Amino acid sequence: MLKMEVIDSKISKGKTLRPAYYRNEDLKKIFGLSNNTIIKYRQTGVIPYTKLGDILLYDSVKIEEIFSTNIGT
């Protein structure tokens, strides 16, 4: 529950300055995810992503919706 509150507060703070897309480093900093967790979530379809060359991009609105509704389940 504490982790969910931390993520929720970070989402709330970033609403005005939220980028359109997150990168892997953003997911690690904002949501506390590890590289392995990000890879697992991509491979299993938990988080949607777009690949642009070698860069992986995650729609910030969709990611925030996913984590705000699914953390703790």
Give structural notes.
The chain is an alpha+beta fold and 73 residues long. Helix content is 56%, strand content 14%. It has four helices and three strands. The chain has helices at 2-14, 24-31, 35-43, 60-70, and strands spanning 21-22, 50-52, 55-59. Strands 1-3-2 form a three-stranded antiparallel beta sheet. A hairpin with a 2-residue loop joins strand 2 and strand 3. The longest helix is centred in the N-terminal third of the chain and has 13 residues, at 2-14. It starts with a helix and ends with a helix. The mean pLDDT is 85.
Write the layout of secondary structure elements.
Layout lengths: L1 H13 L6 E2 L1 H8 L3 H9 L6 E3 L2 E5 H11 L3
Task: Please compute the radius of gyration using only Cα atoms.
Answer: 12 Å
In what order do the strands lie side by side in the largest sheet?
1-3-2
Q: How would a textbook summarize the main sheet? A: 3 strands, antiparallel
The proportion of strand residues reads 5-15%
User: What percent of residues adopt helix (DSSP H or I)?
Assistant: 55-70%
Secondary-structure element pattern, one letter each: HEHHEEH
Give the structural class.
Answer: alpha+beta
**DSSP helical segment count:** 4
The count of DSSP E runs of length 2 or more, i.e. the number of strands, is 3
Mean pLDDT: 85
Distance between the termini: 10 Å
Enumerate the spans where pLDDT stays under 50 for 5 or more consecutive residues. Answer: none
- Give the overall silhouette: globular
